[in-house]
Amino acid sequence: MKIIDILAQKSKDAYHSRPATIGIIGDSVSNGCFEVVDHHDGGIEAIYDTERNYASELRKMLMTLFPFGQVNIVNAAINGDSAPGGLSRIDRDLLPQKPDLVIICYGLNDVNAGEDGIDRYRSAVKGMIDKCHLAGAEVIVMTPQPMCYYVHERILSGTQRDIGRRFAELQSSGMMDRYMTAAREAASKGGAVLCDCYERWMTLRRGGVDTTILLSNLLNHPTREMHLLFAYELVRTMFEC
Question: Per CATH, which fold does 2-240 belong to?
Answer without folding.
Answer: Rossmann fold (3.40.50)
